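Entry 14. Structure prediction run on the chain below.
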Amino acid sequence: MSRIGRMPIKIPPDVKITIEGNTVRVEGPKGRLEREIPANTKLVVENGRAVIEKAGEEKPGTAMLGLTRTLVANMVDGVTKGFQRNLELTGVGYRASLQGRKLVMTLGYSHPVEYEPPADIEIEVPAVTRIIIRGADKEKVGRVAAKIRSFRSPEPYKGKGVRYEGEKIRLKAGKAGLKKR
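Output returned:
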């Protein structure tokens, strides 16, 4: 049995978990999340703790325990604390701003790049070269951050582009130049 799958999930008092068939709904101060869990696992909520158990003795049920436990734990964390990803813009003239909910970025193209985030994702631009993405769903926050990063991924010669905060870009040496004769 999975070590992670065996660990119980602590449920804060302001979080409510409801189970209908294979659908798990988690409600808390930061929002409401819903997810389908695999049919060969079941969620048992008791005494402020949630435990993932196998529904049968098949091997796929055992294989999904750790994943299911982590997904439910992320849902609980998301509705209580929320998740955040930070992006940095590196390059001359690279900047970001918000126009309403729309993120507008100048990334060295001939046109500004605009991105409208999903309804439950919040984007903040505290500085022109910094973007903060917040939300309750960890998967969606990561997907939005990856989408914004994909507009101009860091290039390997000068490191210009949109990168995650703290991301290290391995720079290439570039051309060695012509040998002097």
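The mean pLDDT is 91.
Filed with the rest of this week's runs.
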